[in-house]
Amino acid sequence: MNALQSALRAALHERDHQHARRHLVPVERQTGSLLRQKRQLIDVTSNDYLGLADHPLLRQRAADWAERYGTGARASRLVSGTLPLHTRLEEKLARFKKSEAALLFATGWQANASLLPALNHLSRQQMGHPATLFMDRLNHASLHHGCLAAGLRQVRFHHNDLAHLETLLDRHADQKGLKFIITESVFSMDGDRANIPALRALADRYGAFLYVDEAHATAVLGPGGCGLSNGLADITMSTASKALGGMGAFVTGSQALCDYLVNQASGFIYSTALPPACLGALDAALEIVPSLEAERQHLQHQANRLRQRLNDAGWKTGASSTQIIPIMIGDSETALHVARSLEEKGFLSIAIRPPTVPPGTARLRIALESRLSATIIDQLGDALLDSLRSVTPQ
C-alpha cells in the first residue's frame, strides 16, 4: 500500500470513528415516495418543496427542448454556447426577481464561489483596495469557499445578529474598497430567515451592498414566490434545483453587474452552458410558480403544525419559521440512530452532522413538500416523537 492509499484509509477510519463518514445510497423516485434499499419511504429530506421535479409540464418541456435543440449546449456561453433559449430565459428570470438583469450559472455553488472573487477583483481594480465581506457565520459553504477563492479573510457576524453586524460595520467604516453584507434569506440547515429590510437599511447607512443567497426561499416565499429579497438586494443568487424543480442557478441584479460577471466570473466563463433540457424545465417552472399560492400556504401551515408539536414535546427547532425544520439532537452517533429509527417507520430524513453544521449541533433536518397532506404530517410527527423517545431533548 502506498502513502496515498494509507492516508486515504486513515482519513476514512477517522471519519468512521467520529460517526461523520458519508455514504452514497441510490434512491428510486416514485409518485409521492421513494425506494431506498428496497424500502418504500416518504421523503422529508429533499429540497423539492413544491413537488415541481415531478410536474408534467416541466417533464414535457425539458423533453421537448432536448428533442428540438439537442442534449447539450456544446460550448461555454462566450464561445458558441449562448442559445436564444438562454437569453430569453434570463429576461424572464429578471422579471420574476424584479431586477434589471439575470445571468444563468450551472449551480448555486458555482455562482457563489465565482461571484465573490469577481467582486473582490472589481474592488481592487477600481477602488485600489480589496473588498470587505461581512458574512453571516452560518452562510452556505459555497459562500465561505468564495471568500477563500478571493483570498479574503471574511468579517463574520453572529448568526442573524444585526447589532453585532452594525458593530463590525462601524469598526470597518474607514476601510477602503467595496463592502458587501452577505447572507442567505432562508438558512438551509436552520430554516430561519434573515431580516432583509433591516440588512438593507444597515447597508445603506454604512455604504455597503447587500448580497442575498435566495436558494431556499425562491418559489416558496415572497409575492408570487419571488423570494424574500423582493427587490431590496443589490445581488441575489437563486437556484433552479430546489423549489423550481430542475437544475441550474441564476444571479440577478443590474445589467452592469451581469455584464461584468460575463467578463470576470470564472465559473461562468470557463463552464459549458446549461443544456436545453434544464432550460426547458426552468422555463416551465416560471410559468407555474406564481399561481401556487395555495400550495405555499399549505406548506407553511403544515410546517408550523409539525414544529409546534415538536416544541410542545420539548424538542428545540431553533428559530425555524419555514419548510425547513431542524430537530437539534447534539452528537452525531445519536442523530444517526434517530434517522435510522425514523427510516424504519417509513420516513427518510438524513442526519446532518459536522462539518456541515457546527460541532455539537448534529440534527435531523426535516424538509417538507407541499404535496404532503395533514394526515401524513401527523404520521410523521408520531414517527419522529417515537424515534426520539429514547433521547433527551436538547
TrEMBL record:
This is 8-amino-7-oxononanoate synthase. Keywords: Pyridoxal phosphate, Transferase. GO terms for molecular function: 8-amino-7-oxononanoate synthase activity; pyridoxal phosphate binding. Residues 40-380 form the Aminotransferase class I/classII large domain. Pfam families: Aminotran_1_2 (PF00155). GO terms for biological process: biotin biosynthetic process. Transmembrane segments: none annotated. Its cofactor is pyridoxal 5'-phosphate. It comes from Bombella intestini. Coiled coil: none annotated.
